[in-house]
Specification:
Blueprint lengths: L2 H15 L6 H17 L4 H15 L2 H4 L4 H17 L15 E6 L6 H15 L4 E5 L7 H12 L2 E2 L8 H14 L4 E5 L8 H14 L3 E7 L4 H13 L4 E5 L8 H10 L3 E5 L7 E3 L2 H8 L5 H11 L2 H12 L5 H13 L2 H8 L4 H10 L3 H12 L3 H5 L6 H11 L3 H23 L2 H10 L4 H8 L36 H6 L1
Helix pairs in contact: 1-2, 1-5, 2-3, 3-5, 5-12, 6-7, 8-9, 10-11, 15-18, 18-20, 20-21, 21-22
């Protein structure tokens, strides 16, 4: 979503970081570019003015202009201001501190993704919070709206209120509350009806449902692709209903990001959740500091680690570590890693979370390397026999033709995959020579932590502020994502493996 804004801000800050000293006019010129970038990103004008004034005031202070690294200081000020704009460091989470059933009412316009968000939130509360959840659709206007929630409930393993035709929204709300009490439900999610626009009938219906259910949380679901109109809708709802937070959907889209950046400042309501994809597990707690990091190209390592923890099975990871320590790495191991990457959101999402991975992402796009490539590679491995997966050296010309036909690919695709595997296998053997996983851990322990280790191993430009390595050179050719098909390659050594 924030790609264009991130590019613009990146070029502004690159010019600042390249100077040994800054003058007041340099900062003001840079802030003018930042103002244009924010306005182009569809951020509300009053929010932009307040943001620029705050940053400029701090950035032209003597502590910044006279510091050793003025460019870095300005970036930190912008980062802190972005975090404040998005909601601050302490964003209130979902409030479940009440006698069960805790009622959460979902409101919003039609087509904003309310029903899907209800199912996503139900799944999140069940799996991450360990709550027993019941969902009820109060939408009697949209055809098959109640049936849609019932189907989604089956998919996420969350109970839904049985449908009784002809009931009014308030009657359904009463029945849902009674049912939740009888079945000892912890959280009751009420999916209210939407309209094509904010009108009196919609507000009256929501007020009536709220009067009966007394919700602990009233969450407004808005589509971030609608830009500033999403902020206007939020203002309209906030004036009529006691909102406690906002869920922004389609945060993975190609919108300019103005809704996310303006929402908190204009409405005063925190963004509590963000929908990051169409799948029912693609919802995450909105963290302003992480979003600001992504906008400024600093990555989001914490979210990356969380995704890895959710996607990687501990037993599989231990088994893989044991095999790596022995220098073993066959096609089954490669397939496991490819599937873990898919579970974590695919190549594009992973690259977007890594610090300085902008060039790598561009190289991937230029070479046609995308999530479909992962699927093709998985299909190629799936077309091999068990013996061939365990011993890829058995793959002669005849077998390669059979595998290519079985997977619907070309022989050259099979060769690329085999070459990639060979490079990674050699890297595993080098790890074994270094003393296995303990030796690798010792490597990462040198030179001031992860930053120093990667800085040396990659032959990069040393660690940046905070110990994070400057990974800006991961972009192209033989110095890029080495063994991945279509992205160049070279001598299969440990540095290339670490780059992968």
């Amino acid at each position: 979503m924030f790609d264009n804004l991130s590019d613009r801000l990146g070029s502004v800050f690159a010019s600042l970081k390249g100077r040994g000293s800054l003058k007041e006019q340099d900062v003001r010129d840079a802030m003018r570019e930042v103002r244009i970038a924010l306005l182009e990103a569809d951020v509300a004008l009053p929010v932009v003015r307040r943001f620029i004034d705050e940053v400029t005031e701090k950035a032209i202070g003597q502590n910044v202009l006279k510091s050793v690294t003025p460019g870095q200081q300005v970036i930190k000020i912008v980062n802190d201001a972005l975090v404040d704009m998005l909601g601050g460091q302490d964003v209130p989470g979902i409030d479940l501190n009440a006698a069960p059933p805790v009622v959460i009412m979902m409101v919003g316009l039609q087509g904003s993704g309310k029903t899907t968000s209800t199912a996503k939130l139900g799944k999140l509360l069940k799996e991450k919070h360990g709550k027993k959840v019941l969902m009820a659709s109060l939408d009697v206007n949209r055809p098959a709206a109640q049936e849609q929630l019932a189907v989604l409930g089956e998919q996420v393993g969350v109970g839904t209120l049985p449908i009784i035709a002809g009931q009014s929204p308030t009657a359904i709300a009463e029945r849902a509350i009674n049912s939740a009490k009888l079945t000892a439900v912890d959280v009751l999610l009420l999916d209210t009806a939407g309209r094509l626009h904010v009108d009196a009938a919609l507000m009256e219906e929501m007020k009536a449902v709220a009067a009966i259910s007394t919700p602990k949380e009233t969450l407004l679901v808005v589509d971030s692709l609608t830009g500033q109109d999403a902020v206007n809708v939020a203002q309209s709802f906030a004036g009529e209903v006691d909102l406690t937070g906002v869920i922004l959907t389609r945060m993975d889209g190609d919108a300019r990001g103005g809704a996310a950046l303006s929402m908190r400042a204009v409405t005063g309501k925190p963004i509590k959740f963000a929908g990051t994809g169409e799948k029912l597990d693609q919802i995450e707690v909105f963290q302003p500091s992480r979003v600001a990091g992504r906008i400024l190209g600093m990555g989001d390592i914490v979210s990356l680690v969380e995704k890895a923890a959710a996607a990687v099975d501990v037993a599989d990871a231990e088994k893989m570590a044991e095999r790596m320590s022995k220098g073993q790495f066959d096609m089954n191991d490669l397939r496991t890693q490819l599937r873990q990457m898919q579970k974590m959101g695919g190549l594009g999402m992973l690259a977007g979370m890594m610090p300085g991975m902008k060039k790598a992402k561009q190289a991937m796009e230029a070479s046609g390397m995308n999530d479909r490539t992962l699927l093709r590679m998985d299909a190629i491995i799936g077309s091999m026999t068990e013996k061939e997966r365990a011993r890829p050296d058995l793959l002669n010309a005849k077998r390669k033709i059979r595998v290519a036909k079985g997977s619907g690919t070309q022989v050259q695709d099979v060769n690329k995959l085999i070459k990639m595997h060979q490079e990674m296998e050699r890297a595993m053997k080098q790890i074994k020579k270094m003393g296995g996983m303990k030796g690798l851990a010792a490597l990462f322990g040198k030179g001031g932590g992860l930053g120093g280790a990667l800085g040396g191993a990659l032959g990069g430009g040393g660690a940046a502020a905070g110990g994070m390595p400057d990974l800006g050179g991961l972009g192209g050719g033989a110095g890029g994502l080495g063994g991945l098909p279509g992205l160049g390659g070279g001598a299969p050594d440990l540095s290339k493996f670490l780059k992968k």
